[in-house]
Specification:
alpha/beta, Rossmann fold, 6-stranded parallel sheet, two-stranded antiparallel sheet, 8 helices, 38% helix, globular
Length: 200
Amino acid sequence: MIRYECLELLAGRMTDQLVVTSQSGQRIEWAHLSRHEGNLLVGMMGCAVGVATGLALALPHRKVIALDSDGSVLLSLFNLATLGNLRPKNLVVYVFDNGVYSGSRISYPTATSGNTNLEAVARGAGIVNAHTIRDIADFKQKGIDALAQNELAFFVCKVEESLLHREIPRPDTDLAENKYTFVRYLERTEEKSIPFVGRG
């Protein structure tokens, strides 16, 4: 299964969902596929699940999606324990597990290329609706269907290592601008003022 193909399917279903990405290949691919103002492109590893959980709890009437990677989740496993206890029903997490750290210029194996099973870790943390997806047909069924459900879902998507993200032209906006765009989008769609002061 190729990550980009999964993201293409997701991009075609986006309306007013809020999407949080981690700092890895899927952030670049998602930014290329979706120009939605509800995208928060987090520029750090280990943060997507935590930030998405916070958004889901603060905005229980909005569907929130986290696009993460195996390396990023492994860096912050404490987020799974938090998620397994809070269980926001409006959150769907997709972990694109290629078994390597390929977001940079290296391709070094992660623990999931060995004995570590992220679905088992998630279930052990209390995330009942955790599944491993291994082919695009299963992603179309389980992964896409979860967007319409009112239940926390956690999908470990076993994908091939792809270096496509290294070939995609970088966006003409930076992560700081994306952050401000995202906050203003929330203000507009939630009809609330967010006390968010940037650097002068």
